[in-house]
Amino acid sequence: MKKKQWFLIASGLLILVIIFSLTSSDEDLNELTSYSRKDTFSDDVVTTGELMAKNSVNINAPSDLRRYRIYNVKIVDLVPEGTEVDSNEYIGSLEKSAVNQKIDDVDLEIEKFQSQYTQQKLDTALNLRASREAIRNLEYNLEQKKLQLEQSEYEPPATIRQIKLELKKAERELEQKKENYIIEKHQAEAKMIEVGTNLKKQMKYKEGLVNLQNQFIIMAPKSGMIVYHKEWGGSKRKVGSTIDPWNNVVATLPDLSVMLSKTYINEVDIRKVKVDQIVNISLDAFPKAKLEGKVTEVANVGEKRANSESKVFEVIVEVTKSDSIYRPGMTTSNSIVTFTQEESVIAPLECVFSDGVSKYVFVKDRSSITKQEVELGRENSEEVIIKAGIVEDVELLMVEPENSAELDLQTISKAS
Fold it and tell me: Is the domain of 262 the same as that of 209?
């Protein structure tokens, strides 16, 4: 029986403890306070970014791809990103099937023009030989006519006249044949030049293709660290990626002495960001590293990013002090200082309330609570400047008291 009584007493005490604990928690919640303070107010826009080199040397595919009408060349080999290379060291290679096909096609054209050149050369030799033989025959005929004229001294006048006419005809035929020979020779030379020019053109075209083919082995233009080139969509070019003639960058060699952080600001906060604003930068890879930079570029036109529902604006931050351990592509946290004001009375946003007309705080002074109107200034995500209404070191409620409706609002003009 005594055990049962003790059990009931213990249960009752436990219930009382629980009720007291809950009541105390509610009271503690109602009495949650903070203090106003005088300090330098700072309004920061915080965003993540990515390190990149301000200056870099592009490693390009051959620049003559478009000239030779070779499009969409694939990368078949590429050294790993981050590899340190020396000048003229191997970087990678491109697929050669397109240029090899071009070389095979031009070889067929060269064979065709070589055959035409040889045939034209033989035809020219035969035609000119026949013309020279005809000229010699006409010369013999002219000599015969001259001899007949000399032997016709005692012939009738009509016969002599006939021989003279034949002699003039032979002279005219010989002269005409010589003129024709000169024309034929010029024609033959022109045809030879035409065929020879086509042949030389094809041979020069092949020479260019062979030179282009050799450039499909990509070498480093200088010493540095390989960083893969980013496509328009943000993906990096690597083995299997396609190079087009209008954007033939394979990779880059960044200058690590001057680094940038490229970030994107949402359309709500972009109005706060201006060129030359100070930026406090931290690196995910080196949590202890604290860098400083300044805004150098702010985009005027927004863009739609893959992981953002609203439009964002590109902002470039130049890191004022860099280090060789920092690498392009590292994630940065950028705190852009958009506004500062020294000697400001600052209060947490949780301490400020509104009835739709006035802004006010609940001031706690020992056991009394006053509903005090305040004039607000600039605010950030956590705090707000109190321009008038209270001073520093004032205890403020962070939760609206239950009797708030019964409290009279102390306007700024009435505040002591």
Answer: no
For the entire predicted model, the pTM comes to 0.60
Distance in angstroms (rounded) separating the CA atoms of residues 202 and 198: 6
What is d(CA 352, CA 363) in angstroms, rounded to the nearest whole number? 11
Q: Which one, of 188, 195, 194, lies nearest residue 125 by Cα?
A: 188
Q: Phi-psi region for residue 31, left (φ > 0), alpha (ψ -120 to 50) or beta? A: alpha
| Domain end position, chosen among 214, 238, 269 | 214
Q: Examine residue 273 and state whether it is found in any structural domain, yes or no.
A: yes
CB environment 288-323: b (16+ within 10 A), e (fewer)? eeebebebeeeeeebeeeeeeeeebbbbbbbbeebe
Residues 116, 171 within the same domain? yes
35 in a structural domain: no
**Residue 332 · residue 261 · CB < 8 Å:** yes
| Residue range of the domain that includes 337 | 44-49+255-341
**What phi and psi values does residue 318 have, to the nearest 5 degrees?**
-95, 125
- pLDDT tens sequence across 39-61: 999 888 999 999 888 888 999 98
